[in-house]
Amino acid sequence: MTLRIAMWSGPRNLSTAMMRSFGSRADTYVSDEPFYGCFLKHTGADHPMRDEVIATIDCDWHSVMASLRDEAPDGSPVWYQKQMWHHMVGPIGYDDFAGFTHAFLIREPERMIASYLRKRDTAAFEGFGLDRQAEFFEREADRLGHAPPVIDAHDVLMNPQSVLSQLCDALGIPWDMAMLSWPPGRRETDGPWAPHWYGAVEASTGFGPPEMDRVELPEGAQRLADRCHPYYERLAAHRLSP
């Protein structure tokens, strides 16, 4: 029986490095933002490489969901699925993920937005999905009777072994030191959007040092960060600490 881990994140939250980490495990298959094509086709959003993505991956909400409920494509006992809540604008919702194990990856809004603006000219609240992520988190906490695991990107970079070993324990899988490093380069499991977004991860061989400098945002971007903070803080109160 496959353990399906849905790791919910916003963009620029260390999510691809986390996918690399889990992909380094011998027992784990990884999937990269499986609903991204559905999101692009449904919304018409003008994202980098939009046409290539739509032409390359499954863009049918129900078909994608059915595939995610199946066994891992390579037969691995653990299937790590990198998910983005801002993609979930179609007919698939919380109840469709019955039987999945959920975890949540967050990042301080100022750092998240600054990283995003290095890749795109503008950013909008809806493009981060934090309100949806917080709603989903609370529904899952109510179902479980306790908070599902939450990790903060900064904490992972501060002490990856401590945070990730706690995460593995919360997910019910053994800790594996292989999660701390990986060979550089692209993967077959990377989404077709990798050429635009994954340059730093493709050059990496593990988790880098945390960013310690204070982030200074332009006035408009800071207003966006201020709007994101209440949702971030609701999840951050439950994060696994290094």
Unreliably modeled segments: none
Secondary-structure class: alpha/beta
- Oligomeric form of this entry? single chain
Distance between the termini: 31 Å
What does the average pLDDT come to?
Answer: 96
Please tell me what the overall shape is. globular
What is Rg?
17 Å
Which terms would index this structure?
single chain; 242 residues; alpha/beta
Overall description:
The mean pLDDT is 96. A five-stranded parallel beta sheet has the order 2-3-1-4-5, with helices on both faces. The longest helix is centred in the C-terminal third of the chain and has 18 residues, at 219-236. By secondary structure, it is an alpha/beta fold. The chain is built from eleven helices and five strands.
Describe, in short, the structure shown:
The protein is of the alpha/beta class. Helix content is 42%, strand content 12%.
Itemize the secondary structure elements and their pairings.
Elements: E1 3-9, H1 15-23, E2 28-32, H2 36-43, H3 50-56, H4 61-69, E3 78-84, E4 101-106, H5 109-117, H6 130-144, E5 150-152, H7 153-158, H8 160-171, H9 194-197, H10 199-203, H11 219-236
Parallel strand pairs: 1-3, 1-4, 2-3, 4-5
